[in-house]
Amino acid sequence: MSLPARTVLVTGSAKRLGREIALALAQAGWQIAVHYRGSQDEAMQTVADCEQLGVSAAPFDADLADEAAVRELLPRVIAHFGEVDAVVNSAALFEHDSAASFSYAVLQKHLLANTAAPIVLAQALHAHVQERAGDGVVVNLLDQKLWNQNPDFLSYTLSKAALEAANTMLALALAPDVRVVGVAPGLTLTSDYLTPEKFEALHKLSPLGRSSTAEDVAGAVKFALENRAITGTTLLVDGGQHLQRFTRDFSMM
């Protein structure tokens, strides 16, 4: 007999790393709830690509800085799929600020999207699995820079540090019904801050001679979802970059 399909909500899965995680999980047989904010066309493409892999997928839009929208998100996914087994919090706001440019407003934006939304979604998943007498798992995407701090992207780093602390508290509070695991990539994908040549050079700066790829991170997420003995800890998937000292963020080097 075949096992019932498992369903995962992957936030920020219209593009970049979230999309790669969604596709890897679809390849493993998970049904995918594709969350997006403004990237509707890209979200529909991710849905189509997941369906090409033989699983059900559907798009769900929500602004993660809007508490009402976040509280409605998981119930919408449940209404569509019937049950939800996991949440992968991949979406993140990543805007530059420093000690000199820091403001309440910038910190608040990062905390709402990067910290509060994942906690609310974990809370919602916990309530859902209790109702159906099952279990669930939350995977939070973090960042190797939490173990190798520098002064760049101050508000982003603070929001991810708060989420890493929440991993421990939620793992204790939501057990035994929901496991909570962090996955912390190193430099994985290039951005507008880096030229392709600069990205390739920085990607090699690690004890293993390479940082993480999207496939590495997606594989760690899949492992965290499926290993029932892991909770309250973080898997660092960065080629060892957190073991080296970087005085600036990669995008500022």
What is the topology?
Blueprint: E1 7-10, H1 16-27, E2 31-36, H2 40-52, E3 57-61, H3 67-81, E4 86-89, H4 104-131, E5 136-141, H5 154-174, E6 178-185, H6 196-203, H7 214-226, E7 233-237
Helix pairs in contact: 1-2, 1-7, 3-4, 4-5
Description:
The protein has 253 residues and is α/β, with parallel strands linked by helices. The protein is built from seven helices and seven strands. A seven-stranded parallel sheet has the order 3-2-1-4-5-6-7, sandwiched between helices. Helix 1 packs parallel to helix 2 (40-52), helix 3 runs parallel beside helix 4 (104-131) and helix 4 runs parallel beside helix 5 (154-174).
CATH superfamily: NAD(P)-binding Rossmann-like Domain
Strand order of the largest sheet: 3-2-1-4-5-6-7
- Over all CA atoms, what is the radius of gyration? 17 Å
Strand content: 15-25%
User: Percent range for helical residues?
Assistant: 40-55%
Order of helices and strands: EHEHEHEHEHEHHE
Q: Give the termini distance in whole angstroms.
A: 54 Å
Shape: globular
* Average pLDDT reading: 95
The count of β-strands is 7
Low-confidence regions: none
Largest sheet: 7 strands, parallel
Can you identify the CATH class? Alpha Beta
Alpha plus pi helix count: 7
Could you say what the CATH architecture is? 3-Layer(aba) Sandwich
Return the CATH topology. Answer: Rossmann fold
What structural class do you assign from the helix and strand content?
alpha/beta
